[in-house]
Every structure is written in structure tokens, then in C-alpha cells.
Amino acid sequence: MQGDGHAYAVRAEGLVKRYGEKRALDGFDLAVREGTVHGLLGPNGAGKTTAVRILSTLLRLDGGRATVAGLDVARQGREVRARIGLTGQYAAVDEVLTGRQNLEMFGRLFHLGGRGARRRATELLERFGLTDAGDRGVGKYSGGMRRRLDLAASMILAPAVLFLDEPTTGLDPRSRGEVWESVRALVADGTTVLLTTQYLEEADKLASRITVIDQGRAIADDTPDGLKSTVGGDRIEVVVADRADIPRTVKVVARVADGEPESDGTEPRVHARVTDRVAALTEVARALQDEGVAVEDIGLRRPSLDDVFLRLTGHRTETSGTDEEVAA
Ligand SMILES: Nc1ncnc2c1ncn2[C@@H]1O[C@H](COP(=O)(O)OP(=O)(O)O)[C@@H](O)[C@H]1O
Ligand SMILES: [Mg+2]
Predict the structure, then answer these.
(1) CB of 89 closer than 6 angstroms to any ligand 1 atom
(2) Residue 230 — pLDDT band, cuts 50, 70, 90?
(3) Any idea where the ABC transporter domain is (predicted)?
(4) What's the structural domain count of the chain?
């Protein structure tokens, strides 16, 4: 499990987890370099949470092996737990207490003592941009503040490896941006982060490497740029008012597209891969105007998880609504 010159904070080989007949993990492999953010990208039900729970020793594996911080998760659970932090989709913070009180309570649970816990709470509120909100009840926090407090709570003991399971799912774009800032700050301090997400853009923004998981297996492992070039980068999308204009629109879009423009026939929409985003948009908008085609909408779209899946597996993700717009 070693010897290629890199230090790995997490290594997993052939992980298997069964629930009855169902294999939530089915030979899952992962290698996370120390000091990086590694994205684990996949749709609902792919096995992300199962992988995180096994790596953080909350679940027993049925096959394969894994190490975290060089320790075997199956045989050295206690040592592993002393070196990790975990933030799940559900925050463990108490609504009635203030942010500061929550952090102090966690500090005492981890035996920092009264003064140590107070000092750590102050540091963490500062680090996660919650100093002003620290003395307000958590019940009044926004979604983004809640998640940041949750991150702060998982950082009480400055873990070597932090598992973040979909830390921004359900957040609005602004709160999502705030959580991203916090994750960057963690890594600047030397923590290794394994972050699960359903958003390609999130993995792209934060991770230096991305593993794509589908049906309990890694189906790709690459840098964000490598993955995006597999997927083909940005797309232009044109919606026309009149379906009869689709053939003309396809011709116009074809001039700037990489490959054939696509149009599925059920919607008055034409889309295609492009390399030079802005030039493509300007050219298509002008040409359609010259042709007298009434355009309902025209825009550029970054590839989504759905696009990644279509390229890698030939099928779409089963979850709907992955056409997520994330503020850049
Ligand atoms: N406790 C459980 N009992 C039965 N099936 C489960 C259980 N937990 C997860 N699964 C199944 O395992 C698969 C992977 O789930 P999960 O790891 O939660 O995926 P993700 O986090 O990527 O959405 C899903 O098909 C899910 O229904
Ligand atoms: Mg999950």
C-alpha cells in the first residue's frame, strides 16, 4: 500500500460493504495525498457516506482494507479516531446554546479543561468567521453559519484527517461559498480533507484530485482539469422560441462547436461543447440575430455531475435536478 514516493493520509483497497444483497461498496479504491483536499464525487446512493463511515471507523467493512494516517481502520479503530474529525449531513450542535457555548462544550468533552476549551472556542469562532455571531443562539444561525459551526466543532482537536460528508448540500450559493472558504483555511493549516459532494463545480473549486464513485466503485480518479477535459469542458445552450427554428440553430451552433450540436427534440433547445466560451457566445448570438431566429435564452453552462456520468458511464445519474447552478 505504499512506496510510490507520496505520503497518503487515506488509502483504501477493494473495500466491500454489503447490506443484505445490496453492495453499498463493491471493490472501492481510494488514495488521498497528505495535506490536500480530495473530492469524492458521486450521485445519491453511490456509496459516499458508506465509504466515509468505514474510513472513520463508524462502520465495519466486509472486505478489502483501509488505512487512515497510516493506521488500519479495522484493527486500530481507537488510534484512527484520535486523528480524525467528521462532519456529517446532520449537525450535532445544540440549537439552544450559542455558537461559543457549543464549541466550549465540545472542548470539555475532549478534555481540554475550562480555560483550554474557552481559548479553543475563541480561536475557532475567529477562524470560521463567527466571532460576531458567537454569542447568539444557534437556532438563529443561517444554514451557512450552521455548517461553519459544525466544521469548527469537528476541528476542536485539529485532526490530521477531516471527513466532510456533503458539507454544502442544501445550502444557498452564498452560504456554500462561505463553507468553501472555511475548508480552504483548514487545509492551509495542514489538515487533509476528504470531501464528498454531488457537485462537480464544488470538487473542482476545492479539490486537487477527484475520485468519481458510482455504485460502490471508483470509476475515475483524476485532477479536476483531467476530469473536465474527459467531460469536454463548457457547453453553449440555446433555447429558441419556435421549434421550427431548431435546424437553423443547429447549423449556427455547429460553426463554433466542438463536435456535433445536440438537440433531443422534446425541448426547443440546442447545446454543444465549446472551447472558447465567450467567443462562441458572441458569435452564436450575433448569427442567430442575423438569421432572424427568436431566441428565448442563450447561455454558457459548466459541466455538471450529470455530464461527467454521461461521459464516463454512458448513462445519466438517476437523481434528478443535478443541473445545479453554482455562483462562481
Ligand atoms: N443502513 C443501510 N441499510 C441498507 N442499505 C443501505 C444502508 N445504508 C446505505 N444503504 C444503501 O447503500 C447504497 C449507498 O448508500 P450511501 O453510502 O448512503 O450513498 P451516498 O452517500 O453516496 O448517497 C445506497 O443504495 C443505499 O440505499
Ligand atoms: Mg451520503
Answers:
(1) no
(2) confident
(3) 10-240
(4) 2
